[in-house]
Amino acid sequence: MTFPQHAVQVLLIAIFTVSASGKARDPGSFARSLEALRVVPRAAVLPVAWVVVLAEGVTAVLLAASFARAWLAPYGLVLAAALLAVLTAGLVVALRSGRRARCHCFGRSGAVVGRRHVVRNLLLAAAALAVAPGEPAGFTPTGWFALAVLTGLAAAVLVIAMDDIVSLVTPVTDAGR
Question: Is the overall model pTM greater than 0.70, yes or no?
Answer without folding.
Answer: yes
